Amino acid sequence: MQPKKIERNIEDKLSGVNVSLTKAKKELQDSRQKIVDMKNEQVEKYQKIATIYLLESPKNDDFQIQKFIRQLQELCRNLEDKSGQLDHVIEDYNQKMAEVLLRLDELTTKKIMQLESDADYVLIFNHYNEAKLALTSETKNYNASKQEFITKLAQYHKNRYYNYLVNRRFGESNYKAFGIFRKLDAWVARFVNFSENYKNQIILEALIKESKLRFENKKNVYEQISKQKEQKEYEVEKSLKLPETKTELAQTEQYLADYKKQKLETENTLEEVRKGESFQFRTISNQLAKLFQEQTFNKLADLTLQTQSKEDDALLERILELNQQIKDTETHLITLLKTIRELENTYHRFEQALYIFKENNIPSSLYEFNISSSKLDDLLNTLFNSRVFPESIIQTLLAYRVVRQETHSSGWSVSGSSSSRSSSRSSSSRSSGFRSSSSSGGGGFKTTNSF
């Protein structure tokens, strides 16, 4: 068997051990994660049991458990008290709102009466109504005429011959054209009836400007009279302190809305506490769950019997199942760790064996091994035994080493002298690091300080 094949066999064994080692490490990692997951599930079950216990709050003599129940009851009382206080505050602000609205109505009535008795305001108000009606009417006319005029102007702009003459300023004093071009422009003008259409365009543009001017005038009149009207109204409101009353009303509405929001939030929180869904409830239940985890299973079973719910009984059974599964997995972890250590040692022994074989197989081209594949496999498999050292396996393997036949026939003289062959074998053995006294090439063995 060639040395390279033996090396490959050792490497294959090394690779196989590495695969097993990787698989074992992956299983170890999965088992540890499984334990973490099961412990997390146990914590969840304890928390659910604590939630059920707090929601029912049965009577018992355990001081620590009663402490958590009292915390929950106190939390509910505080929320109920806060809700009741907010009811009173909301009622007060509703009353205040009604008073402010009544006062605002009275002041508004006084404002109207004062304004109606003011001749200047009545005159301004009448002018305001007239200006408003006039602006409304003019706005409709302006929008309608503008749409009509713009539509007609667009028709002119679509005619490219007409636009051509307009761009050349045809018919205007600064129009310039000579000879054939003047005659051509005149012919085009007759073709599109330019003179009449151009006059119509000028009229339409003038009408648009006139309509816009009328609209702007009506708008300005309306804005001016509106300012006069608003100024008169503001003076009366200020004298009656209406702005302050309106501000008070807005503040009261805001305060009332805020207190109603607080009331709704408090009621929602109280409902969540009663259902075991609020943050405050979870804080208390988590503390109780930690206390339950410290109890014996018999004590915990007695506690679950105090509740009406059957769910906590099933949760406790699941906790017991998980506890047994955790113990089984932890036992399996111990076995896995032992297996990994053995595989690591085996991997190290095969690594040593490969290194020693390579070190003691120089030059490998001069030798071959008189060993069968099955015998080699049996020999290498002994390395799985931790009491077997790599050096002894390689020493046994090297005992099967013989000089290659082709090297024997071509590397030495064919004179046939027995002493010459013996001398050649001795020289070859010395050069490769071994001492040999027989034709088999067995004998000396080389190791390093690293192994």
Q: Would you give an account of this structure?
A:
A two-stranded antiparallel ribbon has the order 1-2. The chain is flat and about 130 Å long. By secondary structure, it is mainly α. The chain has two domains: 1-45 and 331-451, no CATH class; 78-259, Helix Hairpins (Orthogonal Bundle), CATH 1.10.287. It has 14 helices and two strands. α2 (63-116) crosses α6 (194-240) and α9 runs antiparallel to α10.
Helix content: over 70%
The main β sheet shows up as: 2 strands, antiparallel
| Uncertain residue segments | 407-451
Tell me the number of helical segments per DSSP (H or I, 4 or more residues long): 14
Give Rg in angstroms: 54 Å
Strand order of the largest sheet: 1-2
**Terminus-to-terminus distance:** 26 Å
CATH architecture of the largest domain: Orthogonal Bundle
Number of domains: 2
Number of strands: 2
Any idea of the CATH topology of the largest domain? Answer: Helix Hairpins
